[in-house]
Amino acid sequence: MALLMYSRFMNKKVFHCFYAQLQWVMRVALWSFGLSFCCFFTFSSSVDEECVVGIVGHPVLLPCFLQHELLSFQNLSVEWRKGSELILKAEWDTDGDVETWSLNYASIPGTAPLTGNFSLALPKVNPKEDEMIYSLFLTSEEGNVSAPLCSVCLRMAARFSSPLLQRDETTESNRTVFLCQSSGGFPKPTVYWLINDTEQPPEDSVWTDATHLPDSSLYNVTSLLKVNLSKDDSVSCSIQNQWMNETLTSRSKGAKEDTIRGRASEGLWMFSTGLCVAVGILVGAGVGYQIHLDRISKKRRVLYESTKGQRRNKKHQFIEETETIKTEEETMMSKESCV
């Protein structure tokens, strides 16, 4: 009997050990399958895709959408890394509560495991982060790290100021010098020169230099053009920012265009002067007529006031005469009654 009970006990112990091992193997298999599934259905898992362009000093969103819900994994943990640097780490427990650590206030949605939206929001970016690769990883309780679930390239960009174009005629060898300057942009721009809007100047006539602004990664670009031109030729300088998809152009007019514009300005000035004179005459006439009306009105008011006094005197005299006659009549009546 004791031997039978011992045998049953050992069989039960062996069964529990086998079951525990089987459960561990199933967990490992499920973990591996989950990682493979997530990696296969990652929205932006290719580094070869177009980079996200971030404006210097502004927030930017790095998209990452997973087609598989990860709540089936207990104590889910993910990490966003910039190269090898940890940017953000988020952990969800079985109740769906999340605990997040981040660098420079980076964030991801708290409902990411439910929605599959693991996009990384950076509140502010600077040029030093240009061409950096941000990657999302899934981590386990044991510290195992998956292959990148998302990899996003980030490019920096900043707008250049409108180019300032200056022209200098007093040079040696009858060559005209044009100076084009712009600053505050990123990355290093491309500078184009055009003569009369169509002709490109010789390459050896152009000198361009782009340097960083003091204590900044933004660029200041200066370009110099030396060519033999007539006074009638026009020159334009263009600053192209590839990542901003923006081209800023400044143009120096030729003498002909300046003459035409001067004549047009002169004609416009004469027309404006004539219009002002006409308006002045009309205003003067209106003021004079108003003064005339005011004088007439004043005379009528004085005449009315004077006649008003005369009427008042006549009325007062009439009242006095009436009262005198009435008194006399009363006196006579009283005498007659006495007689």
Structural class: alpha+beta
Q: Give the overall silhouette.
A: elongated
Strand content: 25-35%
Low-confidence stretches: 1-48, 257-262
> How many strand segments?
15
The amount of helix comes to 25-40%
Mean pLDDT: 77
Note the main sheet: 6 strands, mixed
| Rg | 48 Å
The CATH architecture designation of the domain at 16-157 is Sandwich
CATH superfamily of the domain at 16-157: Immunoglobulins
Number of helices: 3
The topology string of helices and strands comes to: HEEEEEHEEEEEEEEEEH
Topology-level CATH name of the domain at 16-157 = Immunoglobulin-like
CATH class of the domain at 16-157: Mainly Beta
Adjacency order of strands in the biggest sheet: 1-8-7-3-4-5
Keywords: Cell membrane, Disulfide bond, Glycoprotein, Immunoglobulin domain, Membrane, Receptor, Signal, Transmembrane, Transmembrane helix
Transmembrane segments: 268-291
Membrane topology: Single-pass type I membrane protein
Main location: membrane
Task: Please provide a brief summary of the model.
Helices cover 37% and strands 29% of the residues.
List keywords for this structure.
alpha+beta; 15 strands; six-stranded mixed beta sheet; disordered N terminus; four-stranded antiparallel beta sheet; Immunoglobulin-like
Question: What would your notes on this structure say?
Answer:
The chain crosses the membrane at residues 268-291. This protein has 339 residues and is of the alpha+beta class. Among the domains are: 16-157, Sandwich (Immunoglobulin-like); 164-258, Immunoglobulin-like, CATH 2.60.40.10. The protein has three helices and 15 strands. A six-stranded mixed beta sheet has the order 1-8-7-3-4-5, with no helix packed on it. The chain has a four-stranded antiparallel beta sheet with strand order 9-10-13-12, with no helix packed on it. The protein is elongated, with a radius of gyration of 48 Å.
